[in-house]
Predict the 3D structure of the following.
Amino acid sequence: MGSSLSTPKNDPQVEAHIQRLVAENPVIAFTKVTCPYCASTKLILKQKRVQHVCIDVDITSGGSALHHTLKQMTGQRTVPCIFINGQRIGGNSELRALKKSGELDKMLESVPRTADHVG
Ligand SMILES: N[C@@H](CCC(=O)N[C@@H](CS)C(=O)NCC(=O)O)C(=O)O
């Protein structure tokens, strides 16, 4: 019989789903709508005008399993959890540091741009 403190095992299907999301989206962040760091990350990505996907795990259906599995897979306990070109860069602090050093622009060079609004 398992103890109540044991960590539930990852669902392999959820794990595969996360791997697919990261592989298919050059820029993807797992976020929460209530999180100010996530709001900052969303703003930076919007300002960079790169196509990106943000999955708000607190309002997405199945988001809590997604977040649980993501934490197990990455060891990162907080959101945002950001991936660029398949590589986990960390959270908002790391994103801001990359932006400040100019490294972020280099990482985003190959990422498709968002369409500019006309008018
Ligand atoms: N240094 C981190 C701070 C992120 C952080 O503290 N996020 C909070 C939400 S605002 C969090 O993930 N708390 C745990 C949770 O919501 O599960 C960053 O810059 O991304």
